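input
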Amino acid sequence: MTTTTVTISETMLEASSALAEGLAQSEAILGFKAAQAKLQKDNEALRLLKELSEIQQKARTQQSSGKISESDIISLRALQGSVGSNETIQEYEKSRGKAVLFLQEINQEISELLGLDFAMLTRRSSGCC
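output
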């Protein structure tokens, strides 16, 4: 196995550190972090999300075996409604969407400057194909 060592210039390290710090301090990321912290402290919201995940998994299993009932579907829809009306969860989802959009815009700008898909550089190779 061959190991390649890459040396990054001091200027590049400073620029990447400044970019990372700027991203971390952006309104979109700070808003997401605040919403995430609020979600982690909201036991009711966490309970709803856990229950939704469990019921969705159960429904997928039942559906694949053809054994999902109308009452299971009604329960799932009711829980989805509760999740959809929970203010903390909605705030989290909205802020997450804003953060994702912001990072996509940053990626687009950097990609245009570099002439290649910048985010692609961070993907790990699967070792196959």
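quick obs: The chain is about 75% helix and 0% strand.
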